[in-house]
Amino acid sequence: MIKKTFLFLAIIILFFSCPQNVFAKDNVYIDWDLTNKLESALKSVIKDRDIKSVPDRELGSFLEEGGICQVHEDKLVDYEDSLYYKRLYRSTVIIAVNRDLVSEDISSWKDLSQLSYDVYMPANDPHIVTAIAYGLSDGDLDLSEAYSYIKSFIKDKRYQKYEIEESIKRFPAPIAIIFDNDAAALKSLGKNIEIVVPKEGTLYFDMGLVSKNNFNYDEDLMNESLKNADFRLSDGSFSNPIYEDLNYEYASWGGKFNKEIYYDDEVFISMNRIVYNTRLLGPASNNETIAFHLALICLSITWGAYSYHRVLHKKIRVYLLIISIACALWSSLKILRSVATVTLGSSIILWYLYYVPILTICMISLWIALSVDKSLEENKLRIFKLFSLALSLFFLILVLTNNSHKLVFTFPSPLTDKHRYNTLFYPIFVWEIVSLVLTLLILCIKAFYMPNRRTLLIPLSAGIFMLGFMFLYHIGWSVRISQDITFTSGIVVILIYELCMRTWLIPTNSEYRQIFSASTISMNILNNDRETLYAAAVKLEGADIERIEVPIVGGYAVRYEDRTLINELNSSIENVVMELEQKYEVLKQRYAIEQELLSLRSRNKIVSQVEKNIEPELIAIDEELNSIIEFESPHSIDKLAILAYRITVVKQRSNLLLIQMITQEIRAFDLIIACHACANIIEDYVSIDIFHSGEESVKYSYASQALLFFSDVLNIFLPNQFEVMANFKFYPDKLNLHLFIAPKGDQVFGDEFCKRIDFSKYDNLDINCDHDEDGYRFIAKAKRGEDYV
Fold it and tell me: Which residue in 176, 186, 268, 319 could disulfide with 191, CB within 3.0 to 4.6 Å?
């Protein structure tokens, strides 16, 4: 049932996690075009599709949804040859000079380096960087020239990164390095812009539309529309006077540098590491991301397995193994986002899945700290673990189902991975911080009571660095941190716990050498070749030293024991054992004799008790017998019968006493036999039926009282003729006797019979008596009390 419940919850979570179709089929997706130049030109020709102005970051997603996408022609090297492509216009990298702010003549790349104006350019745009490198290296592609050129602006504090949309809206820059069609759009909007094609050389790139499916439009109409929108066509022709004075002879086709621009990410990596001095710690490209995280996966699994065999605490070793698996999973998810072109929806899901290892690491870290500290009782620790597990699962479900409620993240545009944190993200972030802070706090408290607490500042410093790193990531302080969060976090987490093991905060078996050297037990550890690996400082010598060798994994454990004291103790123990055996035989004989004496005393006691109980009754019977003999009468026979009945009652009571003495209990059946024996003596006077229910055993006190009452009741009705029905009921805690006595023939019993019974002598019975014209009814219930004999 539990497995089915978890399976059902998993299906529900996956259902809500699946992203909705964020792309409309058959649309045309173009790069940001805030002047609406390209958008207007396309709408006038392609009227059966919507034109969407979005950033070109998820080309694969657009194409998978059947869309038509704007793309640089050289970027098509990343995709299949079966894609349908149609050129639109040519875009050349130029220098745009704002003549409202700059009066000096500018005709080349070198002219910019001699001026004091700020230079604006897009960050990491490979087309612009490649064009600068081409111009500065006399037709070759020496990227180092471009890096030095741009870095000189940074050194002089003249370099400014800018966003395309801001420049086209306001163009606040004195000088900008952009594409000629963007500069033409600025001029058409009334900006006082001079377009300069650098005389050292620059590059142009063809722009077009690409789709997985064949698409058609009127190419002549499209070319006319593009010319009217201030674009140069892919063949270099134009009809706009903006381009008439420009010398495009300095511009060369940039498609021949596809490998440098796209395949190796050379421009992207070098610009960030050499020019902007960012992303120095972790990967900067997809290839490096894969390599770095494959290495981290191998490190995580290897470290987890290694730690599992080093840590002494059973639960902590399992926790560390889980953390290593979580780090490997985190890196695996990162690789999945990098190995191939994925749709935005699947990319978002992989991002959501990041929180599986993140929340797991935070939760397990807290469990490790609590297990190391051992200040909580086991019951309270279990409750706290269940609470943290439930809270982590709740936050994880919130993240995985974000596509349904948008309460954790919001993606402003479906075609970009830019995101915004929403209300429910902050409790998740706070829980991550609280978990790590509590972990560090507990470890600090633990370290305070350890002799080497100064060395524990090392792992704690790594933990504090992790907290600061997370904080800087979430406030977006640095591009480097946003790139390196997964890799760096995995490294730091492993480093923290490795340092905790190295400083003995988490006990491991790596300190055996120190333990052995300080041990007072003489023991050595040998390898398979019987070479000593670890040896205790104490060495035992002497004739009574015993060497004990036990095979272990990888060698032998050898222990030396001083048997001197043990041998002395063994010798004294042997003497004591012999002496005890002799005394045991004497005690055994004495015990046998005492048992025989006890048996004799018991038999004598039984005889005396029987005599004591029946003696008064026998004396009374003897006196009545003498009186019958002395005074003979017609009723002497009846009297003799009654005496015989009384003698039988005495005999049966004695029998019950003997049974009690021997077996310590009287069965229900024994009492019924005694009653039958008494009734058989007076069978000439009475017709009797005896019933019983239950098989409980009773003590003599109850059985004797019940038999005596039974016999006395019958005795008071002799020598009359009567019928009796007796019903004995045996319970675990009581005994009931029901008697019904009815006269035979025409006899009538008066109330004088009830008066003859001396109820006071039955001190162990509760007796009720009533009579009517049918006869007498007696109910006797045995009362619990001290048994007597």
Answer: 186
Q: What is the per-residue DSSP string for 242-309? A: GGTT--GGGEEEGGGGHIIIIIS-HHHHHIIIIIS----SS--SHHHHHHHHHHHHHHHHHHHHHHHH
Whole-angstrom CA distances from 491 to 282, 465, 494, 667 are 10, 12, 5, 82
> Closest Cα partner for 401 from 8, 19, 6?
19
- Give the torsion sign (CA, 530, 535, 539, 540): negative
Looking at residue 75, the DSSP 8-state letter turns out to be G
- Adjacent-strand bridge partners of 778: 739, 769
HEC string of 336-383 equals HHHHCCCCHHHHHHHHHHCHHHHHHHHHHHHHHHHHHHCCCCHHHHHH
Structure tokens at 315: 């639960």
Q: What is the pLDDT of residues 207-233, one digit of tens each?
A: 888 888 888 888 888 888 888 888 888
Burial, 209: exposed, middle or buried (Cβ in 10 Å; 0-12, 13-18, 19+)?
A: buried
Among the listed residues 282, 466, 441, 461, the one whose alpha carbon sits nearest the alpha carbon of residue 361: 466
pLDDT of residue 652: 80
CB of 263 closer than 8 Å to CB of 130: no
| Side chain identity, residue 2 | I
Sign of the torsion angle spanned by Cα atoms 178, 184, 190, 196? positive
For 90, list phi and psi in degrees, rounded to 5: -110, 135
Residue among 87, 442, 481, 81 nearest 279 (CA): 481
pLDDT in tens, 238-285: 777 777 678 788 888 887 777 666 544 556 666 666 676 664 455 656
